[in-house]
Amino acid sequence: MILEKGFIDNKMLEQKLEKHHIKPTAMRLLVLRQMVESGVATSLRNLEAKFDKADRATLFRTLKTFEEKKLIHSIDDGTGAIKYALCEEGCECVPKDQHLHFHCVHCKETYCLTNSKIPEVQIPTGFIAASASMVYKGICANCS
């Protein structure tokens, strides 16, 4: 089940959470809806701005739960703030599943480039890769 922008009812959001073994609380549904509808990676600060009455700790725990259950992945786009984006179907958040990201230096949005996987590289014997990150920076289509 891939959730995309457009009409998304709570039942679809609940099913997505349950598929990842996440209890569908009101806050989790709100955060998931925001992430689906925005279509870009978001930071804790962005979510705080959207939900000004929500507790920062609750938002942080929600993001961490989503990340632990592989519903979202984190992105270090070089801005100093970790961003979060929805995982693709079947993603286990291991290097072979990870894709490139694009950070717009104008609007400051970070986009998942899901059709471009991070290339596999030879790492030295004895090293174990847990994650990989590759970010292109430039001007997005909306700003160019």
Describe, in plain words, how this protein is organized in 3D:
The chain has 144 residues and is of the alpha+beta class. The chain has a single domain (10-138), classed as Arc Repressor Mutant, subunit A (Orthogonal Bundle), CATH 1.10.10. It has four helices and six strands. The protein has helices at 10-19, 26-38, 44-50, 56-68; strands at 42-43, 72-75, 83-86, 99-104, 110-117, 135-138. The strands form two sheets. Strands 1-3-2 form a three-stranded antiparallel sheet. Strands 5-4-6 form a three-stranded mixed sheet, with no helix packed on it. Helix 1 (10-19) crosses helix 2. The protein is globular and about 45 Å long. Residues 1-5 have low confidence and may be disordered.
- CATH class label: Mainly Alpha
| Largest sheet strand order | 1-3-2
Named CATH topology: Arc Repressor Mutant, subunit A
Annotated CATH homologous superfamily:
Winged helix-like DNA-binding domain superfamily/Winged helix DNA-binding domain
Question: Quick one: how many beta strands?
Answer: 6
- Kindly state the mean pLDDT as a whole number? 89
Can you give keywords for this protein?
144 residues, Arc Repressor Mutant, subunit A, 3-stranded antiparallel β-sheet, alpha+beta, 3-stranded mixed β-sheet, 4 helices, globular, disordered N terminus
